[in-house]
Amino acid sequence: MAVPRSEKSQPSRLEELRAEIKRHDELYYRQALPEISDQAYDLLRKELDRLEADLDPLGLFSQVDEEKSKKTEPQVGDDRLESFASHRHIQPMLSLDNTYDEKEFFEFDKRLQKIFGTEQLCYVVEPKIDGVAISLTYQRGKLITATTRGNGIEGDVVTQNIQHIEGLPLQLSEPVPETIEIRGEIFMSHQEFERINLEREKNNLQLYANPRNLAAGTVKLLDPKEARQRKLEIVLYGLGACNPQNHFSNLSEFHQALKNWKVPSVEYFRTVPEAKDAWQAILELDQLRHGYGYPTDGAVIKLNSFAQHAEAGTTAKSPRWAIAYKFETERQETTLENIHLQVGRTGAITPVAWLTPVQLAGTQVSRASLHNADEIQRKDIRIGDRVVVEKAGEIIPQVVEVVLSQRSPECVPYSFPKTCPCCETSLERSEGEAAWKCPNLNCSEQVKGRLRYFASRGCMDIDHLGEAVVDQLVDQNLVTRTSDLYALTKEQALSLEGFAEKSAENLIQSIEQSKQRDLWRLICALGIKHVGAAAAKDLARTFHSLTNLSTASFDQLVSIDGIGEIMARSIREFFEDSQTHSLLEEFASHGLSPEIEMDRSTGSPWSGKTFVLSGTLQAMTRDEAAARIESLGGKASSSVSKRTSFLVAGPGAGSKLDKAEKLGVPVLDEPTLLAYLEKPETL
Ligand code: IVH
């Protein structure tokens, strides 16, 4: 949403929150590597919603939003990757409103009561599955495509990677509607997760953080043969588009059809006559859900009748006829044995709780996050304390609180060290920052962190460079900067513990292959503060080489869609540093200087131009048009803003056309676009 002008000049908590949420969306949806729990993410979102509502209580600015048109695009993350074909959902895949609060659940019911003028609304209650969302499209009962959520409007076609899943119906029996989109979730069992990670560990490959991430990574594998080696599972619960529309009149009928088709559907499905019974079902489900084969993190409560869905409608983000009630995460008590200080790649010191191992939500937990020094002080956490831990969304467990009644008199307040646990340099903390930092860039823990990040799947994606290998390379002084990786010889690799001829060759080959990675990956791998994969792609598309990016001015940077002032400042600081200059020289001397080829280069009139495609095109699909525009160096975007260079409008262009006209954005028809595509130099 747009912000009143006066707010824009000062980078505020609002801007920070938006950047942070964008980064977490990218990590969760596109890279399957979330850093925070779902609950922590929900808190950030709630804070942003509150701030936005405070700034704009009447919703006036969201009506004329220039950057993101809430009316035309659902506000969900985006998992799409360039390497997959896209498929447009017939019915958009929205998100769900969620709550952790009983009162809010009944307020949801009250809102609907008002719409329908009745106190008794028939709901269904079913589990909320914590997997990877998928949409299956069937024509006359035959599976045509399996598509990820994508941006809610169109997703990636992953049929090849999931069609082998046991129980996934390739053909539905009669009676079946002409066209139907069935929605569900893909997941992976803990057992399979552990089997795969064990194998990866043996091969020195990066480990996956949890089954959900591994399932998401598997769905997006480029090689379907590899996907087939991993056991994915599926559970179906939802209806997208259906033709004829009146084939089902409510969710109970649809659920019965899933059963008749013998497809894997949710074990728990209750139809209830009013909200108070729905609440009882929610409580019952919370008791039963741990016995299910898939992970669940809540209950979803939906109006049963499809006619009522249509009448209640949707917001930009979610339907008004459904809500997710998220269950409190499981908590356990255990003893805090020690506080270990971890040094991150940026030098930030993160305290980690070492715990007496305890069973929690299906796994054994022995480490938990303590966030930072202030958090330890605020909660007065002491070594030797009994503490409560919780595992939200199966990511990193957290220490929630101390059980004060059980504190022994010997427990003394924890005093946060003044020096780095690795290199003993005095720690520093800048104003407004939560974390203490080690300022020594050569601190070996920082070096290891930078290398791990550089090689990670979301960055340079270097196989055979797992944690243990990185540790050895740094400890043996073979690598001190990321660029040193490219000078590593097979002989040196052979000197590493556990390495033989073949493994040494593999490592050197993987490093060599990484020189072919796209420019955006290298930009991302540099670890510039605030620059994630999405921003790295925007930067690569605009500047075409690291050399161009390194000399880009602050003004040039902020003029790019998606790059704010905070990020632009951070990019400038990074490239002004003399250490960066020599790093880039080193990369280039080893032949690592990816560029975007000539026909996309600055010489092209298409470079830096943003096109929005709207309405129906005759000669090609919008995806094809977007691909051709991008191949010439242009950018295809989905919403019209004042930075849009051209709107390409086919019949039915609708609100985007109105907006383009209002903002004075030039409008092209399809024949004109085609003429430019034929003769790109004439644009
Ligand atoms: S209904 C129009 N029901 O959770 C959106 N969603 O956080 C209706 N999910 O997008 C979604 N279990 O991917 C629905 N029983 C369930 C679900 C479920 C998991 C996912 C789904 C949704 C997301 C929202």
Bound small-molecule species = 2-(butylsulfanyl)adenosine
- State the fourth-level CATH superfamily of the largest domain: DNA ligase/mRNA capping enzyme
Structural class: alpha+beta
Q: In CATH terms, what is the architecture of the largest domain?
A: 2-Layer Sandwich
Tell me, briefly, the overall form: globular
| Uncertain runs | 1-11, 59-75
Alpha carbon gyration radius: 26 Å
What's the domain count?
6
Strand order within the widest sheet?
2-11-10-3-9
* Binned strand content: 15-25%
Number of helices: 26
Outline the biggest β-sheet: 5 strands, mixed
Total E-strand runs: 20
- Return the CATH class of the largest domain: Alpha Beta
Mean pLDDT: 88
CATH topology of the largest domain: D-amino Acid Aminotransferase, Chain A, domain 1
Helix content: 25-40%
